[in-house]
Amino acid sequence: MGDPPITRGFRSRRQEQNPQGRVPPGQYVTTDFPVLSAGPTPDIKVADWTLALQAGGSLIGKWSWAEFEALPQTTLKTDIHCVTKWSKLDTTWQGVTFDDLLKAAGIAEPPAPYLMAHSHGGYSTNVPVADLVGGQAMIATRYDGLPILPAHGGPARLLVPHLYFWKSAKWARRLQFMDKDQPGFWESLGYHIYGDPWKEQRYDGD
Amino acid sequence: MTAIEAAPAPARRLVWLTASVRDITVETPRVKSITLNVRGWPGHRPGQHVDIRLTAADGYQAQRSYSIASPPDGELLALTVERLENGEVSPYLDDELRIGDQFELRGPIGGYFVWTGGGPLCLIAGGSGIAPLMAMLRHRERHADRTPATLVYSSRSVDDIIYRNELDALGKRDGILRVLHTLTRQQPDGWTGHRGRVDRALLADACYSPAQSPKIFVCGPTPFVEDVARFLVELGHEACAIKTERFGPSGGSP
Fold this sequence. Notes:
The complex is a heterodimer of chains A (206) and B (254). Chain A has helices at residues 65-69, 98-104, and strands at 28-29, 50-55, 58-64, 74-81, 86-97, 114-119, 124-128, 138-143, 146-147, 157-159, 172-178.
């Protein structure tokens, strides 16, 4: 492939807003918090909310809202990157790390190398377990100190900030360990199976 | 003839193609449609979008997503771009872009917000969210598809209605397409359409009943889509029958 064609008359208006090393290729920084979902925002009452952890066919952990809120809480300040090109810097989330969730379920070692996160509304996304452990990921319940708004995935969403943000499934309700990696919702519709923003893995084949 | 052909195979790497500007149409004071010739375009389905990549002389690049407003049509592709005042790409496309200019493009992207045929078809648009829904209406029209369809289209004022003449013409000659406009901010004297935001009553009237199992596509700014999708669920439509696309600073899925 040759050099890309120069787009006559186009110049950067934003470079100064992109701190070196913070913004992956093809992304731009926004201060907004855009909402992207494939369907209606579900109305989830915390009184009815549960989170289930599954391995094979069996349930290996389940929490009500009150039980979940009693688990150790962690605050994570991180940048997030959406495959639709926006990045948002220094976002602050609070919730329960995946490590603490496993501990609470009495699991010393993850039982399988992959995980499918299932959401209210039918959404799903696959993540390698290696990307969830070691403090890299959490089930977040608060953003900027306040309960996460429904449109942003409240009451609880997965947060895996080092992957494109579609991996941070909104409205999480069931986490299922898998022996083999399988595509989730967007991954079945042409998006990348892994989604590393620094390698610009937006779509299948990137 | 069946209007909607099978999808192009999705297991294909999305390579950057060169798009040449063939035509520019002023739709409203803030919106233009850009018709592109894209050599090697693999085809798309109505509702899908593309990524575009602009390259400055100093090598700086910017990428954005835009919905495709045109039906599948060989190597021709139309994008409809709303000017976002603080944006980097849309003011360039609005002010600077000329016929013959080139940039890169890849796609089609998004396999969910796609009309694959069947209906009835219920389309609900806010502002420039009309673009991917127009691809569906144009495709339906081009194939003389007889799927009953309704478009509910919310604009700020008459001058902000995108594709107005084309929609008027479509609505007049097609007995099973209803085009309902609502104007939220300003209505001209003698306006006989709806006024104010899309509400439950308008949707109940326009949208077919849940028993008719309409295929519903909603596209527009986030607050618009949040409200409309909630009303539709309250009216009894299955959440999984309602496909949404929300326009933030950039359009497109996820």
